[in-house]
């Protein structure tokens, strides 16, 4: 087919249009959910301020991805319903901007697990003084997330062209649509993310084991140390699902994404692009994670209040006995 015939097939594809419409609808829903989650996490005292900074960077990343996605799908849908043939070919620079924001948000969101693992590791290592640790460390970890995201994007865009290339037709807003890189230009960074997620999940589990062990075996503990370890145990419980979801989603995206990219030559263009947008379900992930985290924290908060209520009704002499045990 000619380029114009290829583009006519793109604009008329039912599955591509459906994929863009559904994803655009979900993305619009994600905005109020993510903004509410941002306000809620900011007010949560369960987490150390540095932990909250990492989660807020993650939410910012999801919002950035959603903004890029709204621009990407909105322009394409208007284009597909109003134009046909070569008139529907996307603008190169528009694609560069919206796809860049789309990829930036996704890359930054994938790095949250790494910063949380480092933050919880430092909290455990310096448990006697971490309570007094300022937000500077959390900001540095947030910058680390940005650095890792830019490193990922550097490799992703290394062979991409930043100006239109003659004799290369841009049918859809792809990262490498006008580049000269191989399929490994995309797949190699994704494999690194897959391995990184597995390693971080294992380390986070081990941090939880060490924190509980240290809290139960350490006899002489200052009030600050006990508070830090208890907060660490509560934070790990609350963050467990967050880490699990983050690891699963970005491992899944990387695994399915690499499989899809390798099989792209055997698929029709509209089908391939429709599947690309389907597997990148980052806004859906943001909505489900925000809702689940909210109810999980509410449940944990209810348990703490119940425990406190029960402790109030304990015989006062019990506290004296426990105090003597601690100072003996």
From TrEMBL:
Keywords: Membrane, Transmembrane, Transmembrane helix
UniProt main location, coarse: membrane
Segments traversing the membrane: 20-41, 139-158, 188-209, 241-260, 272-295
Membrane topology: Multi-pass membrane protein
UniProt keyword Transmembrane, yes or no: yes
InterPro entries xrefs: 7TM_GPCR_serpentine_rcpt_Srab, Nematode_rcpt-like_srab
Top-level taxonomy: Eukaryota, Metazoa, Ecdysozoa, Nematoda, Chromadorea
Subcellular location: Membrane
Protein name: Uncharacterized protein
GO CC terms in record: membrane
Species of provenance: Caenorhabditis brenneri
Keyword flag Ribosomal protein: no
């Amino acid at each position: 087919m000619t380029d114009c015939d290829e583009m006519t097939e793109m604009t008329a594809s039912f599955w591509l249009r459906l994929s863009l419409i559904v994803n655009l609808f979900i993305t619009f829903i994600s905005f109020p959910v993510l903004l509410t989650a941002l306000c809620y996490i900011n007010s949560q005292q369960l987490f150390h301020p540095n932990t909250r900074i990492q989660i807020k960077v993650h939410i910012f990343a999801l919002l950035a991805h959603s903004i890029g996605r709204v621009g990407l799908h909105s322009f394409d849908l208007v284009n597909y319903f109003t134009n046909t043939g070569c008139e529907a070919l996307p603008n190169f620079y528009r694609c560069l901007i919206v796809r860049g924001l789309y990829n930036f948000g996704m890359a930054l969101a994938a790095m949250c697990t790494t910063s949380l693992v480092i933050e919880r590791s430092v909290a455990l290592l310096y448990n006697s003084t971490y309570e007094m640790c300022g937000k500077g460390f959390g900001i540095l970890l947030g910058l680390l997330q940005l650095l890792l995201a830019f490193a990922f994007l550097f490799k992703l865009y290394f062979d991409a062209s930043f100006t239109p290339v003659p004799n290369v037709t841009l049918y859809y807003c792809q990262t490498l649509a006008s580049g000269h890189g191989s399929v490994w230009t995309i797949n190699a960074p994704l494999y690194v993310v897959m391995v990184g997620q597995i390693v971080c999940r294992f380390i986070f589990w081990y941090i939880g084991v060490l924190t509980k062990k240290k809290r139960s075996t350490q006899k002489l503990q200052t009030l600050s140390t006990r508070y830090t370890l208890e907060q660490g145990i509560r934070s790990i419980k609350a963050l467990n699902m967050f880490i699990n979801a983050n690891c699963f989603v970005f491992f899944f995206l990387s695994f399915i994404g690499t499989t899809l990219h390798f099989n792209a030559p055997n698929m029709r263009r509209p089908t391939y692009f429709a599947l690309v947008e389907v597997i990148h379900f980052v806004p859906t992930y943001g909505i489900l994670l925000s809702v689940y985290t909210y109810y999980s924290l509410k449940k944990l908060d209810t348990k703490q209040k119940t425990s406190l209520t029960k402790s109030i009704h304990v015989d006062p002499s019990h506290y004296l006995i426990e105090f003597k045990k601690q100072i003996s």
